[in-house]
Design brief:
With 159 residues, this protein is an alpha+beta fold. The protein is built from five helices and eight strands. A six-stranded mixed beta sheet has the order 2-7-4-3-1-8. A two-stranded antiparallel sheet has the order 5-6. A hairpin with a 6-residue loop joins strand 3 and strand 4. The protein binds a DNA duplex (12 and 12 nucleotides) through loops.
Length: 159
DNA sequence: GCCAACGTTGGC
DNA sequence: GCCAACGTTGGC
């Protein structure tokens, strides 16, 4: 039986790697996630899942584009690189602790859908993204949330 | 197993 | 740059 593909939101700092960078490179291993809850979400991802790319630590913050998962989860190589800030010397090589997926761009938002605008969408009222203190960098997005976000910027064809 | 200290995230 | 909120660490 076919399962409806899931939707997610992933945060990134545009000064480091933003949606335009994803378009430039065409495909990117989403490495550096070092939070167990976020990792567990990564491991649930399947190729074809949609991903809203959220720019954090930006002015303004908000969703900049929609991407697609193009791999299953696999070990994040940076955990075994001593020179990397994401090195984790306690990760067992035979059972790597941290995972990542590859992501490819799908469509840039014609305009940023800001956090302020997200707060005004009824469908988004229950999203952890809008809750004070939520620091998750990878989180699930419901189908109504996903559709509302795309419609808000006129991308009805992707919703 | 508790919890204080510490580091990080992320909006403002 | 500030600081609230949260996750992790480590002493006990």
């Amino acid at each position: 039986m076919t399962v409806q593909s899931a939707c997610w939101l992933m945060k990134t700092e545009p000064d480091v790697f933003g949606y335009p960078d994803l378009e430039r490179v065409g495909r990117e291993p989403w490495n550096g996630v070092r939070n167990y809850q976020a990792r567990n979400f990564l491991r649930q991802m399947q190729p074809g899942d949609r991903v809203l790319i959220y720019h954090s630590n930006a002015r303004p913050t908000g969703i900049a584009g929609v991407a697609q998962v193009v791999s299953a989860a696999y070990p994040d190589d940076l955990q075994f690189r001593p020179e990397s800030p994401y090195h984790d010397p306690t990760s067992p090589p035979d059972a790597p602790r941290w995972s990542m997926v590859d992501v490819a761009p799908l469509r840039a938002f014609p305009r940023l859908l800001s956090l302020e605008q997200l707060r005004e969408l009824p469908e988004w009222q229950d999203s952890p993204l809008l809750r004070r203190g939520t620091r998750l960098s990878v989180l699930p997005v419901t189908a109504p949330e996903y559709r509302a976000a795309l419609r808000a910027v006129g991308l009805d064809d992707l919703a």
